[in-house]
Design a protein that fits this description.
By secondary structure, the protein is α/β, with parallel strands linked by helices. It is built from twelve helices and nine strands.
Amino acid sequence: MKEWNNFRIGCSGYSYRDWRGVFYPESLSQSDLINHYEKYFDVVELNFSFYVMPQRDKIERILEKSRRLNFSIKAPSIFTHERNYDSSHVKEFLSSIKPLTDSGRFIAILFQFPQSFHLSHASLDYLRKLSENFSGIRRVAELRSRTFLRIEALMEMEFMGFSVVNTDAPKVRGLFIGPWKKTGELNYVRLHGRRADRWHGSEKSFERYDYLYSDAELKQIRETLVRAFNGEETYVFFNNHYRAKAVLNALKLKEMFGKGVKIPSSLRGAHSSRLWE
């Protein structure tokens, strides 16, 4: 079916220590992780850039190591969480990712805002400034505060040139979740898992993403994707990354779209139900 080929499915990040022995062979070198990932997926989000301003040579090495991957890249936290950047930060970031934006394999810059970033006149002014600074580059915004779930706010985001990320996450108070719809140029979906008891106040950051979608949940997600985006090109990234659960769920969703995949036995085994546990 036509719709199968238009859903590009991958993971939010690919370099996690706890993926070794589950998805990656233990002996695989760090530099070869992306080659292994590319055997199974054709899209990925680069998220190391959230924590540190990326270096141009690292972006170049990633592009050289891969052959067919397409990339989104997460904006550094200074643009989304601290929100105290200046023109030098914009220049540095754009210069560092220029090999990617010029490569023909660039999807978008992901601006992921915290749930504490609420809809207000000041917030909209900030988003306008950000959009102007990144004019001409495809950009998506993940807005986690439910205050943005207003048609006029979404229309304003689209007018600014942002595509708004559609998310799946636990139904906790104040979190912006659905209904999924196209807002902006790109259809872009991020799935965080549904670990409601760990979303707020987790001792360790990975805990909120320690969730494995069931096959029934994945079938529901598939139906929602088809219904919401009507076969248009759509990027879908799993962020429930703990112990490569994102990988297993992404591969299973690809299977449900009729894409030929081979799920590693180590990955199936790590997350299978065991009778004697």
